[in-house]
From TrEMBL:
It holds the Pfam family Flg_new_2. This is Bacterial repeat domain-containing protein. Residues 408-445 form a coiled coil. The chain crosses the membrane at residues 377-398.
Length: 453
């Protein structure tokens, strides 16, 4: 039972530093209808009646009230919450871990555990010691011993109590002197809100201990020997009213007198109830019953540079959850983490699914900017240069061909001019030759004529 105190101190310090956030919640008032209860533990008591129960990190703590006087010492028992102890050694779940009988705890009608302070607070209901009116006893959860007394009020006693870890507050229910009202206390046990009086709001003649789950305060109304059975009375903190009254069936044989006394939440939507069974013998029997209430867990989704199908998705316990995601323009899917752990995903993934959801989860989808495609750009540049080179080569060839053609045409024109010049010259020569012949003939004739004379 004794933990390493330095480790406990560090954990408590972390609890104060790190804000506690819870998202899961009971699906609604109708969730309390038709609950199925499983008997998980039974043991013979020691002549008293278990009045209250709370759960710590490793134990289930109960007070067995031996008598309503200031002389008889009550019994405080701790049972293993899990099948392993605080050091990881295997144990039988719900078996006895420790038992102390060194103090009178008044009626001990209710109790709750605060992880931040590592203390148990006991609502007394009675004040056989006059100065105990309106007080709470503080218990050490490791030694089960008394530590101190906290004064809450002077004009009423406290029936039940539970701690709301999310807000670091307490819910108490007063006795009839306070009209069976529910009140909210701050961490210093100062009343900061009164939800109203609830006398005659439900069946029964009084109330047992209470517990809080989300918006709901759940309590057993006292119906012992009324012949009407056992009930849950459920109240809404936000609505400040009773939202459900439902009959319970623990599967106990007819003719056996039972009294549900206390209840606590041992897991999200998992309620453990202690029921006293009056057998007619000197020693009664206590039974632990467990049930699961239909419960929503929440999957929160975070993303940047992309769109997701939901940011806070309610999922019924054991159900499935699918998340679709799309990157913004210019971005692409990079990574998805579930509760901080990177998940193996396809590069082109567009959705993610969770199956058999049993708790709250946080999903983060990361999108990254699509990088400039260097290799592709280089290939495109090379292809462009190659194309330019091909065009240049073709252009040069065309240009060269045109030059050759122009030269050929120019040479052809020169040849044609030369041919024509030659033709002219030949014609002129021919004409000269003809003229010379004419001149020669005339000269010949002229000499002939002179000879005749």
């Amino acid at each position: 039972m004794r933990a390493k105190r330095w480790l406990g101190g560090i954990l408590i310090l972390l609890i104060f530093i790190i804000p506690i956030q819870t998202y899961a919640e009971i699906t609604g008032p109708e969730a309390f209808d038709g609950l199925s209860w499983e008997l998980v533990h039974e043991e013979e008591l020691h002549g008293g009646v278990i009045q209250s129960m709370c759960v710590t990190d490793n134990y289930i703590i109960c007070i067995e009230n031996m008598a309503d006087n200031s002389e008889t010492l009550d019994i405080v028992s701790a049972y293993y919450r899990y099948d392993k102890d605080a050091d990881g050694n295997p144990v039988e779940q719900y078996s006895l871990a420790n038992r102390v009988q060194d103090r009178e705890w008044e009626h001990g009608n209710g109790m709750t555990y605060n992880r931040r302070t590592n203390e148990i607070y006991v609502s007394l209901y009675t004040n056989t010691i006059e100065e105990n009116r309106g007080c709470l006893y503080v218990m050490d959860p490791d030694t089960l011993s008394y530590k101190r007394t906290v004064k809450v009020a002077d004009d009423y006693n406290i029936l039940g109590i539970d701690y709301i870890e999310e807000f670091d507050q307490y819910v108490i229910q007063t006795n009839v002197d306070g009209g069976y009202s529910f009140k909210i206390l701050d961490r210093n046990f100062q009343v900061i809100d009164d939800l109203g009086e609830f006398k005659d709001s439900t069946v029964g003649i009084n109330f047992q201990d209470c517990m809080v789950s989300g918006d709901y305060i759940i309590t057993f109304p006292l119906t012992l020997d009324m012949g009407i059975g056992d009930y849950f009375s459920v109240y809404s903190i936000k609505g400040r009213c009773m939202v459900k009254e439902t009959r319970l069936d623990f599967g106990i044989d007819e003719g056996i007198s039972e009294e549900p006394e206390s209840l606590c939440e041992i897991g999200p939507g998992e309620i453990l109830a202690v029921v006293n069974i009056y057998t007619g013998n000197a020693n009664h029997v206590a039974r632990f019953y467990k049930t699961q209430v239909p419960y929503y867990h929440y999957v929160t989704v975070e993303s940047e540079n992309g769109q997701v199908s939901g940011t806070r998705i309610p999922v019924l316990r054991g159900g499935e959850c699918s998340i679709d995601f799309t990157p913004d323009e210019g971005y692409e899917f990079s990574e998805l983490t579930l509760d901080g752990a990177v998940q193996e995903m396809a590069e082109d993934a567009v959705s993610f699914s969770l199956n058999n959801v049993q708790g709250d989860h946080h999903v983060r989808v990361t999108f990254t900017k699509i990088p400039f495609p260097v290799v592709k750009a280089v290939l495109i540049a090379l292809a462009t240069l190659a194309a330019i080179a091909v065009v240049f080569v073709i252009f040069r060839r065309v240009e060269q061909n045109l030059k050759r053609k122009r030269r050929r045409e120019m040479l052809a024109r020169r040849r044609e001019r030369n041919r024509r010049r030659e033709q002219r010259l030949e014609k002129e020569l021919d004409q000269l030759e003809e003229l010379e012949e004419i001149i020669d003939r005339q000269d010949y004739r002229s000499r002939i004529q002179k000879g005749k004379k």
